[in-house]
Protein 1
Amino acid sequence: MKVLIVDDNYNIAETIADYLGLAGITVDFAYNGKALLSYLDGRICERMQWLTMMAYFG
């Protein structure tokens, strides 16, 4: 399985990738929306699932 992590926080993305790697999952990264669109340009995705996690401080 291959997973794309999109997060503007490099450390969080790397931590998630480390855990997924332990399960044998291959990980690619995009660190912002523009990088995501560039990554997806011309690619065919078998399945896309969105997980949105946002921190709220206030």
Note: The chain is about 35% helix and 15% strand.
Protein 2
Amino acid sequence: MESGPAVFAGTVFALFGAALLLWTGARVLHRAPVAHGVSPVASTALATVFGVLFLVLGVWCLTHI
């Protein structure tokens, strides 16, 4: 019964983290800004860090079922 929310949370975190990393990579590849009005280096670094963080959190949730 408790594994249902863990599977949902893990899936959501993993999909969001992967999508954020994919989107950030596409923006960097096309030399487009990741966030408007922010330093390109800072926005790319923060988006990458949070993408990896959400992906790891999702995998962690899925492994603790």
Note: Residues 35 and 61 are 29 Å apart (CA to CA).
